[in-house]
Amino acid sequence: MRFNFFKRSKKVAVITGATGGLGKDLVKRLLNEQYRVIMVARNMKQLEQISLQFGKEVTGCLCDISHNNEIAYLCHDIRSRFGQINVLIHSAGTINPGSLDTQTDQMITEQIQVNLTGAILITKGLLPLMKRNSSIIFINSLGGLLPLKHSALYSASKFGLRGFALALSLELRPKRIYVSSIFPGAIETQMLHREMKCGGSILNFCSPPLSTEIVCDTVIKAIRQRKLEYFLPKWSGLQIKPLMMLPGLIRFIMPILEKKGRKGQKTWKNQQISSISK
């Protein structure tokens, strides 16, 4: 299949992880905002389905972000076919829960590559297409603020992504290219279900999992407002950021958070059972 190659538009958005639960909804939302969308994902079949659904308004770019050579080709391809992009949204992400001694070298490399290195390389590769008043949006995680036991690699990659975004914002602001990071808690997607089947963090349920709609709303808000960081739910940043100024307190507070998480997970599971039975 040949994907649609649309003409240059006043507003063009690139979304990585475009076929995931959040990514697909971001594509729809950006289309509603009158963007033309370049979808980046590694699933050819799903790219084809979405491309057929939305026609000339989208184009699909096949890329496995875990491979640097594919990122290099992706960036070259986009640069050669598009004169300018206005928004770059990093939605791709992966997690393999488990203690460090259970992680293979491949698991370690993949999480750091997809969550951090890949985002850096794509940003660098597409930056020449970004002009004044462009936006770069990183879908980070509260795991980029609060360390997650048995998800050390995920936390490391997300902590690193926050540092990269903060430093990059200082570098690009004189050019009026704006960098924003969004820090959601758990999002109600298949990724969350897969994570929990593999022993994901109980802290995912300290608050109810977010709908993709809420995250999409925040992405649009970030494009318009251009603030540096957004936290979902809003109170989470107010609680977690002061805590990280005194990281020694985490071991005392963690039992309280885990108790809250276990209670929230029980409610979540009951809701899943109730929705299936209807």
From TrEMBL:
<dbReference type="Pfam" id="PF00106">
    <property type="entry name" value="adh_short"/>
</dbReference>
<keyword id="KW-0560">Oxidoreductase</keyword>
<dbReference type="InterPro" id="IPR002347">
    <property type="entry name" value="SDR_fam"/>
</dbReference>
<dbReference type="GO" id="GO:0016020">
    <property type="term" value="C:membrane"/>
</dbReference>
<protein>
    <submittedName>
        <fullName>Short-chain dehydrogenase (YqjQ)</fullName>
    </submittedName>
</protein>
<dbReference type="GO" id="GO:0016491">
    <property type="term" value="F:oxidoreductase activity"/>
</dbReference>
<dbReference type="InterPro" id="IPR036291">
    <property type="entry name" value="NAD(P)-bd_dom_sf"/>
</dbReference>
<comment type="similarity">
    <text>Belongs to the short-chain dehydrogenases/reductases (SDR) family.</text>
</comment>
<dbReference type="InterPro" id="IPR020904">
    <property type="entry name" value="Sc_DH/Rdtase_CS"/>
</dbReference>
